[in-house]
Amino acid sequence: xxxxxxxxxxLSKTYQIGGRQLPVLSxxxxxxxxxxxxxxxxxxxSGKTTLLSVLSGLDRPSSGTIRLADRDITELxxxxxxxxRNELIGFxxxxxxxxPSLNALENVMFPAELKKDPAAGDKATRLLERxxxxxxxxxxVSELSGxxxxxxxxxxxxxxxxxxxxxxxxxxxxxxTNSREIMSLLLELQRERDxxxxxxxxSREIARQADREVRLADGRLVSGEAS
Amino acid sequence: xxxxxxxxGILIVMLLVVSGLLGGCEREQRDQRRxxxxxxxPVYDGVIIAMGDSLTAGxxxxxxxxxxxxxxxxxxxxxxxxxxxxxxxxxxTSSGARSRIDWIINSRPDLVIVETGANDGFRGISTQLLYDxxxxxxxxxxxxDIGVLLVGMQMVSNLGDDYRSAFNAVYPxxxxxxxxxxxxxxxxxxxxDRGLNQQDTIHPNEEGYRVIVENLLPYVHQALNLExxxxxxx
Amino acid sequence: xxQVRFVLRELRYGGAQALTFILCVALSIATLTAxxxxxxxxxxxxxxxxxxxxxxxxxxxxxxxxxxxLEQAVRDIQSRAGADLARVYGFNSVVRPEVADGSLFVNIMxxxxxxxxxxxxxxxxxRPFGEVLQAGAVVVAPEVLSRLSLRIGxxxxxxxxxxxxxxxxxxxPSRPVSIxxxxxRIFTSTGDLEQMGLLGVGSRSHYEILLRLPEPExxxxxxxxxxxxxxxxxxxxxxATTARSQVKRFFDNMLFFLSFISIFTLLLSGIGMQSSxxxxxxQKQYTIAIGKTVGATYRFLLLHYLALTMLLGxxxxxxxxxxxxxxxSTFPLLFGEIIPAELMLGVTIGDLVEGMLxxxxxxxxxxxxxxxxxxxxxxxxxxxxxxxxxxxKPATYLLAALVVVFLALLVVRQLEDVQTGLxxxxxxLGFIAIIFLLTSLVLRLLRALPVGNLAMRQAFRSLFxxxxxxxxxxxxxxxxxxxxxxxFLLEFNLVASFITSYPKDAPNLFSLDIQRGQQEAFFAAxxxxxxxxxxxxxxxxxxxxxxxxxxxxxxxxSDSLAREFNLTYRDTLLDDEIIVRGERLFxxxxxxxxxxxxxxxxxxxxxxxxxxxxxxVFSIQGLPMTAEVTSIRSRTKxxxxxxxYFVFAEEVLAAAPHTFFAALHLERDAIDETxxxxxxxxxxxxxxxxxxTVVRLGELIDRLARVITFFSLFSIVAGCLILIGSVLATRLxxxxxxxxxxxxxxxxxxxxxxxxxxxxxxxxxxxxxxAAVAIVSSWLICSAWFNIAFRLHGGALVIMALxxxxxxxxxxxxxxxxxxxxxxxTFLYRQNG
Lengths: 227, 234, 833
Hints:
By secondary structure, chain B is of the alpha/beta class. Chain B has helices spanning 6-22, 54-57, 67-77, 94-99, 101-106, 118-122, 127-143, 161-177, 206-231, and strands spanning 46-52, 82-88, 111-115, 147-151, 181-183.
């Protein structure tokens, strides 16, 4: 068993638009070690979100392979990937993507409940306390502010104690104060749990805090391939 | 091809008829007689039973406008304290009247006014059967010492002269044969008079019943006198 | 002004929503077209039959010769309107053969040449009636020959005339009207009347004048004109359609029922239109938001989407008209037994235009709210996926009010009676209000329910999510289902009461007025033993000391307590009776007293407000009798079984004067002969033959049930479309939820199970509510309107619930399948633009 939790080799992703092939990612090989904080940067349209999606198994590469926790997930079906995501991966999105019909606590509990964890409620309560939202746990999503929503989303990403967390512009919809708070919270939690964090952003400030920065330009890696 | 829509016509009409009959409810017979208060029954000098069909029952008029009720008040006005019981059954033929004569006798009346036969005539039932039924009724009443006032009936002419004359002759023949008081025609001066009958041209209206009672009253007096004379020796 | 390209482009990506919308429009127009056309068929056929039954458009009836003013008015109309006229004289008489012995009581109908003005009297020989019935000749019912042992060619003495029997009657269209007359029918010519000498002073006859108008629609007006000169209380002027209106009322009831179904279908389709159009526009809101951002005015967008809606509506209307034509063309096949094919005209242009107009009106009405919503879409929707398009409450209420007004007008128009229409409308609103309240209650209860299973809980959450249409879907579904179920239960109970409970060996011949002592003779005439019911005539004088009020009773619409009743005695219940109050018919042991016991039927108990222990005073032909109510009975079967309001113990009435009533079952072929034997042996006994009635009633109800079921199918289809529409309307939310579930690790199975649970909840709640409402409403209609016993059809309820759940889950699953299959990333990418 190596220290690498995520290994991709020669990943490519091409979209068919009309009759034309439109390459989005080409030949991306990347290794992420356990506990590492990797930032993916690049301009708008450079393929950051697509790379995160392909790496996390939400989308399928056109070619190349991905190994996640020593398992090749490239060829897994959607229904084989789902429990894997549940156990191994946490997601934080720019647009929060909380389930609007659930309150804060239930949103956090949800992944734990999916794997029938009897302690789901306790864990979720503790996590919400940890992020300072225990007073607002019964509130519906629509009643929360942007910063609060993102805290709930972080809790949801971490409830199953995943070794790997993907975050796609987690502060993109927040003001600067909230952005800083969310980032420090995310990093604290990542370190506490010794989780791996792969984060896409175009913020230089965030990139500076990372262990490693991987730069994307036109779907290709321009730096940080190795190490 | 004939329309099938006529079916509901037949069916609904028949259904109504059938359910009406089965329900024991010939809807046309809507009459009722208010009985004198039962609790404090007044004392009478005697009892007259008016036995008959719808003409006696008073079909289509209020109970107090039927002829037995009117007769009772006329008698009272004349100082005769008699109770007149309405024992009319609408639609009844002489066969029905005959079969219930024991029930009439059981009430121990002093006089029975026998008015029946119109329904026999309207159904073209044999006049011999009518004669036999009436004879049996009269004999039973007389055998029980009950006075009889027989009221005659006359049949409409459309049934044909043969039937009509045979029918009309039944009552005088009986009156000749038995010691009864006889009123030749119950509807004398009333039958066929548009002003005295209801729309169906058969049943007298309130005014018609007043005329009938006026006509009937002398015969009732006669019958009661006869009865009193017969009673004296006892 | 309108950019056709824009409209067509928008249409292209409409997909399922557009199709659902088109189907809804098509359905509503097809239903209206088919039903209106069917209605005119029924009216035409009804008029035709009424004309045949009564022999004319206008009928003048009197017991006396028609008065001169009326005769003058008839002559005027004859010359002015070109009406045909036939005179009819009807009376009973006793006829005898010219030579042989014997006599027969008959019903004579003397008719003038030209009779009947409508239809025909069919003769055994097949020759035309008008040619056969000349002066000196008579046409007789077959029984006349058999009872008098005569043959065609023999001569009959009628009054003072001697006439020759030339033919027998095979079918007499007027017979149903005169079913009450007791003797067989003989047709004679009016030319022989004088010679018969039966009419005149001292005779009782019906005098009739029948008129056939060139335009039967004029009948009512002409009848009114004639009525004004007719002698009041003596001469009656009627039209074919007003006379003996039971038939008409029967069909009015059926058409009312069908109109109800069609309006209901229209309403459901309207809801379907609204939800599918909402779904369509929701899908377009991105386009709309961009349009607004780049400067398109609300007016521009509204105009173009209105054009789009109208285009879809037009396609739907054309499809609906075509469907209506196809449906109509199957009518002769489906309903040929009810309405003669020659009276079923094709769909008229009027029907089509009307169907289209009403249909398009429905489109406009139900499209207005979704179209109005366009105004509420803000460009900000581009930035934020704001799925709740809010419309101001006043606008929603205004539109709801408009819908109600429109429907009210439609109801009044369809039912052709303002008062009934409004009452009906209020009833419907009440009905929907009740379902709405019940739904709210059930949803509140469900919401409070603690749910352990995650998928189940998500399903609950999904149902109760803010802005979800759960309540309106349940209200709609439950209303549709309860109407369908009510229709089914009514049909079931009608059939059970009139047909099923009338088995093959049920009585088909009734005999009245059998006297005591005639039982054996009666059995001998019939050739077998038969059930005899004693009948004692009596009247009710008072209830608990309160005298029966003659005037009040005679104004009662239900049965009158003041009439002469037929009482009976027996010590046991009949097969079709049950005790509803009290222990048994009579108390087992009762101390001897002047007060006897009586068992009362529930229907009359209700009319007279009679309860257990009440004291009723009867007069049994003059003898007062006090009775205490010891039980209340109810009947479980049909109206065709004999029943008695008041039953006494045998020892109470056995001595009272009574006759017997017999109910017999005979082979149909043997009935006529048996009747002859009965009336010969026992002339005082009357018989009533219901064999044909029973058979035909069965066939009729069966066919009517088919018509109703046929039109009910339309509302089922509408219900399905609504369901599809509602799934489509919440499609975006469902896609989003599905993506979220999957991202955090839910499998397809998990997502599908949420869909199943959610739809199962919808289906179950709707069907339970529908069942409850349907049971109550059909019970009410059965007991209050049809006055028949109500039985539940458990199987139907279960099947309805299962089918509903299966359909809801099925439709939910099928329309969710494409959603569930989607990869979550598709949703995410779309979010990121």
